[in-house]
Amino acid sequence: MTKAEKMELFHRDNIADTAERLFSINGIEKTSMDQIAKEADYSKSTIYVYFKNKEEIVLYLVLKGMTEIKNGISEIIDSKDKSDEDKYYQICQVLVSLYDKSPFIFSHMMETIEMKKEERLKVPLLDDIYQVGEDINEKIAEFLKTGETNNNFKLDDKAEKLSFIYWMMLSGVIMFGNKKSQYIECQFKQNKEDFLNQVFAMMLGIIKK
């Protein structure tokens, strides 16, 4: 990466991180580009050099979050000194960590991604998000296949489909568990962390031999 590219990334990240804080507090609609510029200490014209609008900032934040997940999962799955079960729980924690770090990014990751290639290509960031999502799905599928080969998992469907199912289930459980943390504590006398770990164990039991 050249010095100019590093500086561009620095400024884009500064602006996006500032926007994320404002979006989380005020919502996207009630946050203006003027507010983002003022809070980030940039001129409005400079903001528009890096982002066309608020929607592009949101997509950039989602891409960052998805890339963080992909890198975290890849590092875990490629490790040679962890059991398949340990890898599973660490993958769960990668998602938990992103939610704890940014509920805003996590929730927007779950929104619909345009499937038609010709439509995605009109918005390059949207296509980038789609491709990273496919990379994550393929990596988890690889993990499931390896677990089956190691005689630790029993897959009743294609690994690629199960990978998507687990991604969907884990994401939903983490979001719902966080939003209902007070209910969980009152009704089940468990903290959020213990509850989530119990659900993760139940989900593992579906495929574990």
Automatic annotation (TrEMBL):
Pfam families: TetR_N (PF00440). Residues 32-51 bind DNA. InterPro entries: Homeodomain-like_sf (IPR009057), HTH-type_Tx_Regulator (IPR050624), HTH_TetR (IPR001647). One of its GO terms (molecular function) is DNA binding. Keywords: DNA-binding. Gene3D superfamilies: Tetracycline Repressor, domain 2 (1.10.357.10). This is TetR family transcriptional regulator. It comes from Pseudobutyrivibrio ruminis.
